[in-house]
Amino acid sequence: MKAKINKGRVVNWFDTTGNIVPIPTSVAISSSQAASNPVVINTSVAHKLAAGDQVTISGHSIAGVNATWTVVAAPTSTSFTVAYNNSAGGAGSGGTAAMTRLTGQILDGATVLATLTWAQNATVPNLFQSQEVTITKVGNFTLLVKYNGVAIDSIPYDVGEHPVTDQTHNVAKSLALSLQDGGASQTISLKVIKADGTSSASISAPYDAAKGAYVAASTYTFATEGPYALVWHKVISSVVTPFLMKDQLVLKVEGKETVVFSVRTLADPAGTPHASVQVVVSRSDGTQEAQGTTGSDGYLVLSLSPGLYKASLLKSGVVFNTGNFSIEVVDTDVEAWTNTVPLTTESFTPTVTAPSAPPSLCSLFLDLYDMVGAPVPHADVLVTTLSPPQMLTAGVADTKRLFKTDSNGHAEFSLVQGLKIELCIAPIGLRRILTVPSSAGPSNLLTLAAAAEDLFDIVVPNLPAAASRTL
Hints:
With 471 residues, the chain is mainly beta. It contains 1 helix and 40 strands. A hairpin with a 4-residue loop joins strand 19 and strand 20.
């Protein structure tokens, strides 16, 4: 959870077990003891309170007792004490004691910054909402939740001067939930709960395969500033059950800040300016917020709301060593600060040449059969390049390619036109030198081989002479 310093906000807590007893429960007060400090409160039935529990007394005849107290002790099942000094007073009667079994504290280490009293949400019984609390210091704190005095949850609670809003204020948003256990076939819906406890209508959220998430069928507009609870529901044993709560802090932008961008190199302390550079400023979700072009001095002035952004540099024909920067725009109404953002990077202009035209190819094929007309499958057809690369406009980098006939004795491939090759077909002992035709084909390799040069090589063995010996 997060909050803004010196800004009151309601705290949401979600009971994932669904086992918390509805609160508050109350019992009738029969009397209070005279001349007692702390004062003893007697109830008409068992109160089930323990030391440390919170209790709210109302309607009692002693006005000073009517308040919210922390129970000091519970001597019996029908009596408890609170820290009210009634040593000089008489006995009281009447009223009720409402027990707050669920308690909460915001802690800075062992220091209590705020004590929370909870109200159970009328629409989502798993959701409990506190009174509005204000934290006057910045830091990372802890929300500690207790039930009947026993800690049941501990949640980080961050307070900052410039927290980033989770949702854009007063803009219709599409809300989604990533794929849950159980896959894409679940029935998911959403309720949005405001700080005052009111709830939106249930919004169905069918699975969107393209996004890999359950997406709310209609958008929701966060029209007021403050905390919201997104409570997701699914059908469990035919019952629509809340199972997940997402805390959302929505902050209203009070005004935009003047932000000066300085786009320069690292060449010297002053930095050589980058002129005519387009600066595109986007939010974390990729939404473009503003853009502009630097002047000859490398400066650009934009108006932006406080928050976190990414600034990207673009210029035709130029590459920047660092093209994307994470930046923060500060609310100067809260903090003494000048929003001058240095975007420091080197740049270079790459040399780009047009690609060469691809060489012309000729489609070649052959069909091999044995003497009884059966196709010869998987026969090796070896092609070796004999043309020097400089004879061709584009050059041929490889020197050998092995092809094989398919199950029908057929092989088909394309080679560069005009290429001089040596063709070897292993099963029939054929070896020929031929030139690939200067046409697109298709051309029969066996027809070309029949008219080609028949190689007859004389191989002279290179045998080492035996060493001479003297007898």
